[in-house]
Design brief:
Smr/MutS family protein, 4-stranded mixed β-sheet, 9 strands, Smr_dom, SH3 type barrels, alpha+beta, 2 domains, Ribosomal Protein S8, Chain: A, domain 1, elongated, Smr_dom_sf
Amino acid sequence: MFSKGDNVSVLDEAINGVVLSTKNNEVTIETEEGFVMTFFVNELIKVNVTSNLMDSIKRINVDEIKKEKTIPKPRSFVKERKDKNERSAPEFDLHIEKLVLNKRGMSNYDILTLQSETAKRHIEFAIKNRIPKIVFIHGVGEGVLKAELDFLLGRYDNIDFQEGNYQKYGQGATEVYIKQNSK
């Protein structure tokens, strides 16, 4: 495709030069600045000094470029199967960044107290409004918030709780089931 003396241009760089030699898939050129460089054949395009732009474009294989540009198919994820009548449970994120605008000046005790009071408020609301299931997102971390949440939930007689769905939350969530009393 290229022969000695051809004027070439590098596709992805502003380098022009003259072909010195070709070997297999590699072409050695001397740049306009006098440097000797080696490129692969697919990195160069032949340029005629009196070149017509359309002649250069005709040599480009559009199908190969389209194949390179194709977007890979997104990976499929396993979806959680739900009953048609089942509603999604309300989720409450207890990360401190979700509870306050700025945690500057708050001690770890203040942060944990705010998180546990927020959880207690949501539990009381769910009991009062007969919401059968809620989810607390606490994250993994060192497990301090999870332990505090377990202690808080253990104080209620009408509540069961377990680890959240691993596929959906990883290890950083707790599902809370509220047993409804018939009044």
